[in-house]
TrEMBL record:
The keyword Signal applies. This is YceI family protein. Residues 1-21 form the signal peptide. PANTHER family: PERIPLASMIC PROTEIN (PTHR34406:SF2), PROTEIN YCEI (PTHR34406). Gene3D superfamilies: Lipid/polyisoprenoid-binding, YceI-like. Pfam families: YceI. Residues 25-189 form the Lipid/polyisoprenoid-binding YceI-like domain. Keywords: Signal. The lineage of its organism: Bacteria, Pseudomonadati, Pseudomonadota, Betaproteobacteria, Burkholderiales.
Length: 191
């Protein structure tokens, strides 16, 4: 009898160690998620803009320290605050919104330090080309939203990319910068 109880206790201990948390799915909150960019204009000033229309989801398993993200942005939703500049950015010279209406960031490689995401490595598909991009987290947090009554996770991420890797070469011969600072502000609501 005693050996049976010991065996049952060992089996219970083993099975409790096998149980793991399931990844949680989060929907991108479009009111708190933006892709922003900064690019030097002849070294005199910075041109800045953002993309207003986006959708996507995040899967996060805090216990296993893993995650996945897919966010799609509409190129025609670019907003610099100057309509004429927006039209040029949407043209075939740059984002070519007519032929490439979206660009996408996808990742399944999250790096953690404790409970905090510190880096998300994935791919950026822009102008029909896909290249690796690693976004570094400037901050990351999960919190219980008092308004939504659900968990929200998010952070500010950034990477500097060479736009010519995606074939966006406009103005490089005139001295326009190749390097673009991308800032991705993301908040997502647990489903």
């Amino acid at each position: 009898m005693r050996s049976t109880l010991i065996a049952l206790a060992a089996l219970a201990a083993l099975s409790s160690g096998v149980a793991q948390a399931e990844p949680a799915t989060y929907a991108i909150d479009p009111t708190h998620t933006f892709a922003n960019f900064e690019i030097s204009h002849f070294g005199a000033a910075m041109n800045r803009g953002r993309f207003d229309k986006k959708e996507g989801s995040v899967q996060l398993d805090k216990a296993a320290k893993t995650g996945k993200v897919e966010i799609t942005f509409e190129t025609a939703s670019i907003n610099t605050g100057t309509p004429g500049f927006d039209k040029h950015l949407q043209s075939a010279d740059l984002f070519n919104a007519a032929q490439f209406p979206t660009f996408k960031f996808v990742s399944d490689k999250f790096t953690f330090n404790g409970d905090k995401v510190t880096e998300v490595a994935g791919t950026l598909t822009l102008l029909g080309k896909t290249n690796p991009v690693t976004l570094k987290a400037n901050q990351f947090n999960c919190y219980q939203s008092p308004m939504l009554k659900r968990e929200v996770c998010g952070g500010d991420f950034e990477a500097t990319i060479d736009r010519t890797q995606w074939g966006m070469n406009y103005g490089v011969d005139w001295g326009f910068a190749k390097n673009v600072l991308l800032r991705l502000q993301v908040e997502a609501v647990k489903q």
